[in-house]
Amino acid sequence: MSGVGVARQAGVVKIFDAHCHLQDRRIASVAPQLIRTALDSGVQRFVVNGVSEMGDEYPSIIPCFGLHPWYVNERSPNWFKSLREFLAETPGAAVGEIGLDKGAHAKNIDFGEQVDVFRQQLELAKVLEKPVSVHCLRAFGDLLEIMLSTGPFPAGVILHSYIGSAELVPGLAKLGSYFSFSGHLTSMKPEKAKKMLKSVPKDRILIETDAPDGLLSVKTSSSFPFPDVASTAETENQFGDSAAEATSLSKEGLNHPANIHRVLKYVATLLEMPEEELAELSFQNATRLFSYPGSKVNSDG
Fold first, then answer.
1. Would you say residue 184 lies in a domain?
2. Which of 97, 141, 155, 190 has its CA 20 to 30 A from that of 298?
3. Residue 20's domain spans which residues?
4. Residue 210 labeled ligand binder
5. Was 160 annotated as part of a binding site?
6. Is 97 annotated as ligand-binding?
7. Residue 21 assigned to a binding site
C-alpha cells in the first residue's frame, strides 16, 4: 500500500476529509485498507492530526501537529519547542489539533492552562501562515474572545466537528474560520443544525469524518425523514474486499474515512443542496485552505 496516491477515478465524486485520526491505535493496524477503501470511494485527501511517517508514505495525507487540550497535563517542559521543530522539519504540515474543552473528558484539566497552551499554538499558526484545526467543546465564548484578541487569521482556522450556534457563525467567520462538519452534527436537533448550517458562508463549509470517532447516527422521524445511506453489503459489493475491514469497524461503533459519504448526504439534506454540489464546494474550499506554501496540495496544483 506504500505510496498510494490521490484517487482520480472517472465518475466518482471528489471528497476531501478535512479532519481524521488514521494513526489512532484503534484503527492504525488496518489504516492501509481504510485508506484504499476511501480512495476507491472518491476521498482524494485526508487531513490527519498527529502524524509524520504516514504523511511521508501516502501522498493523499496532509499531516498536522499540535497539542490537544486533553493532553495538556501530560506536556513536557519543552513541548512548544518540540512542536516548532516538528513543523519546521515537515513544511507540508498544518497545525492541529489544538483547542479548548469544558466537557467531561477534560474536567480534570485546568482551563487556564488549556487557554495558555491554546493561545501559544494559535499564535504560532498565525506566524507560520498555516491553517489550524481547532477542537472546541462548551467553550465557544472563550474561543471567540481569544480569536478576537489574536486574529484575524488569513491562513484559516478550522472549527472541526462544529456544533456551535448559528449566532456565533458571523463573528467566527469574520476572523477567518472555516466550519467542518462530521457525524457529531447528529448530536444537534435537525432543525437547529439546519439553521446553523444555513448561516455558514458557502466558501467556508468543510466536511470530515473525525475517524475513528464521529460515526454518524441518524434517527429518522416524520418531521425530518433522512434518505437511506448505503448498507454494509452494498459498500462491500461496490468497493471490494478492502471494504470488509471498514464495514466491520462500523459495526463496532468505530468510524472510517469512507463514511464521509454519509456525512455528505446528511449535510446536503439539511442544506437542501445536491450532494454533488456540496462535495464540489467543500472540496474546493479545502483545497484552497490547504494550498499554503510547502503543502503537497499546493505542489500538486
1. yes
2. 97
3. 15-220+253-290
4. yes
5. yes
6. yes
7. yes
